[in-house]
Design goal:
This protein is α+β, with helices and mostly antiparallel strands. The chain folds into two domains: 131 residues, N-terminal domain of MutM-like DNA repair proteins; 126 residues, Helicase, Ruva Protein, domain 3 (Orthogonal Bundle), CATH 1.10.8.50. It has six helices and ten strands. It has a four-stranded antiparallel sheet with strand order 1-6-7-5. Strands 2-3-4-8 form a four-stranded antiparallel sheet, covered by helices on one side. The longest helix has 26 residues. The chain is elongated, with a radius of gyration of 20 Å. The structure holds zinc ion. The site of zinc ion has 7 residues, from loops.
């Protein structure tokens, strides 16, 4: 499932072919994904210029010159691909459509942007730009983990009253937006905090230390995604899925990488989701 760094990588890959460009034709090939598409979505998008492509949590937001904003959510299996010529050379050369290509944007610059989603947990919606923050999917979100509002004072105050496992607190989108299972496991490993540890029982200095660690973990993954974009044109044009090595996630049974630890990474299930941690150095 794409998490914040993957979504940010998709946004970064789409920006050069979408920002400032007109959607010459929007093709909407089915009535819904996870939810029904908004009414007349194809007509409302066709002819619109994308003024800005931004991200909130795991949602991509395209602000249009018509005063509307298009929300894109990749869900579990959503993939965005770019084909054709993103440099405005008007080469209309695209691969054959595939079965799950549900929404296609033909941009005026000749690029084709395809949203493919086999499991259809993704979503698209249109809303007035001025009301975007109040959209049901966005209204309750906490601060962005890479933004200024997510700081040590905010974070420690918000977490120290939580009687839940720290992992559950970090996954709570009202506390911080966009953190998912993988990067929470990675951050807790780096902070040497066990995922099952009750949030309110962690000392304030250790809690505060999580803030820069979360930023680093996400920032490093975004940087890895950014460098993966340099050669996306050589592959199939798919954005956002990149090789990234994790320190604990997916490493069950392998040796802990903390120098001198000697522990073995263990997988447990918390709230129905896999947790990976080192029982030796995470307390
Ligand atoms: Zn360890």
């Amino acid at each position: 499932m794409p998490e914040l760094p993957e979504v940010e990588t998709v946004r970064t890959g789409l920006a050069p072919v979408m920002e400032g460009q007109v959607i010459a034709k929007a093709h909407v090939n089915r009535p819904d994904l996870r939810w029904p598409f908004p009414e007349r979505m194809a007509e409302r998008l066709t002819g619109a210029r994308v003024e800005r492509l931004r991200r909130r949590s795991k949602y991509i937001l395209a602000d249009l010159d018509r005063g509307e904003t298009l929300l894109i959510h990749l869900g579990m299996s959503g993939r965005m691909t770019v084909s054709g010529d993103p440099l405005g050379r008007f080469v209309h050369d695209h691969p054959m459509p595939e079965k799950h290509d549900h929404v296609v944007f033909d941009m005026e610059n000749g690029a084709r942007i395809t949203f493919n989603d086999t499991r259809r947990f993704g979503a698209m919606d249109l809303m007035p730009t001025l009301e975007a923050d109040r959209h049901p999917l966005l209204a309750a979100l906490g601060p962005e983990p890479l933004g200024n509002a997510f700081n040590e004072a905010y974070f420690t105050a918000a977490v120290k009253t939580r009687r839940t496992p720290v992992k559950a607190a970090l996954l709570d989108q009202k506390l911080v937006a966009g953190l998912g299972n993988i990067y929470v496991c990675e951050a807790l490993y780096r902070a040497r905090i066990a995922p099952t540890r009750r949030a309110d029982r962690i000392g304030l200095p250790r809690l505060a230390a999580l803030v820069p660690i979360i930023r680093d973990v996400l920032g490093e993954a975004i940087a890895a995604g950014g460098s993966s974009l340099k050669d996306y044109r050589q592959a199939d044009g798919e954005l956002g899925y990149f090789q990234h090595s994790f320190d604990v996630y997916g490493r069950e049974g392998q040796p802990c990488r903390t120098p001198g630890c000697g522990g073995t990474i263990r997988r447990t299930v918390q709230s129905g989701r896999s947790s990976f941690h080192c029982p030796q150095c995470q307390r």
